[in-house]
Amino acid sequence: KPNITILATGGTIAGAGDSSVNSSYSAGAVTVDKLLAAVPDINNMAEIKGEQISNIGSQEMTNEVWLKLAKRVNELLKKDNVDGVVITHGTDTMEATAYFLNLTVKSKKPIVLVGSMRSGSSMSPDGPLNLYNAVSVATSEKSLNKGVVVVMNDEIHSAREVTKTNTSAVNAFASVNTGKIGTVYYGNVNYYMTPLRKNTIDTEFDIEKIDKLPRVDIVYGHANDTAAFVEASVKAEAQGIVHAGMGNGNLFPKTQEALAIASSNGVVVARSSRVGTGRTNLHGEVDDEKLGFIATDNLNPQKARVLLMLGLTKTHNKAQLQEMFFKY
Ligand SMILES: NC(=O)CC[C@H](N)C(=O)O
Q1: Which Pfam families match (predicted)?
Q2: Which letter, b or e, does each residue of 277-290 get, where b requires 16 or more Cβ atoms within 10 Å of its Cβ?
Q3: Which of the four, 4, 60, 67, 196, has the lowest number of CB atoms within 10 Å?
């Protein structure tokens, strides 16, 4: 049987409440041993070891937990007696953690993130089957060389593409630009696509050499916007600002002006979009060359922030950072 390590970080999958029909509960209340005890069938598929990395709601996620998690996954997957890793995680920031690991972990072995939308004490909880399916994906040889994946609601999604699209529904996760890459039905794993954007062993980011990530803020654009949040971000010494722009990454004039000044003072400004799907295209309505901005391809703001933080550990050169947004 394959050896799988489950790293628990918290979230609703480890959540508990007082009633099966009350929507209020605490995320990250149940330990990894109890999570595993609820799904005894996974022991027929794999030798399971559990480790607790954190026990938080994923809205509390920090760069420090990301670094700790990535280093631990890297360390585990270097061992011959570990065949794959499953990470249980809250769903709020799961897409960002998944993309962070996709860019930093150096292994071809399966790395699977899983969560749930209903806590263990809810009626019809989705966590047990999601966990069972996640372990199946981690034990499957079909999962080699797929980069980091997210398993939710019988679907397999690539870390770069997946995003949370609903606040509470069990089908909250979707790869809005490209579609899911596979399905898993009571442990039956099938893939239909392989991610082409570079990941894991093919990236330039070496987590063993990164102990701190630079500050990158997200500023959300809107009608009648202001320069105030850009100025606050610059004052707080952000090295990068991701702008969640309107439409094709467009900006309110005053905000654009403040960001152009920030850029000329060495802050890297990346144009994303608040729309949710599609690319922010170079040579659109915004003259990136003149203003000193880069475009984030089709990464949403929270994923663009992850890549910009990692990119800034390597270089502040805008052309090189722009290349990274087309590569990863
Ligand atoms: N469904 C969930 O996992 C949400 C719980 C919590 N907010 C978290 O992200 O951890």
Answers
A1: Asparaginase, Asparaginase_C
A2: eebbebeeebebee
A3: 196
pLDDT digits (tens, 9 = 90+) for 102-151: 999 999 999 999 999 999 999 999 999 999 999 999 999 999 999 999 99
Task: Decide: 126 in ligand 1 pocket, CB within 6 A.
Answer: no
CA distances (Å), 289 to each of 204, 283, 284, 285, 321, in order? Answer: 25, 9, 11, 12, 14
- pLDDT tens for each residue of 238-296: 999 999 999 999 999 999 999 999 999 999 999 999 999 999 988 889 999 999 999 99
Closest by Cα among 4, 71, 33 to 213: 71
Helix spans in the chain (H): 32-37, 42-45, 63-77, 94-104, 127-139, 228-235, 253-264, 288-291, 301-312, 318-327
pTM beyond 0.90: the answer is: yes
Please name the residue whose Cα sits nearest to atom 6 of ligand 1. 57
281 close to 186: Cβ distance less than 8 angstroms: no
- Give ipTM to 2 decimals: 0.97
Pocket test residue of 23, 91, 119, 153 for ligand 1, highest count of atoms within 8 A of CB: 91
Q: Which domains are seen in the chain, by residue range?
A: 3-202 (3.40.50.1170), 215-327 (3.40.50.40)
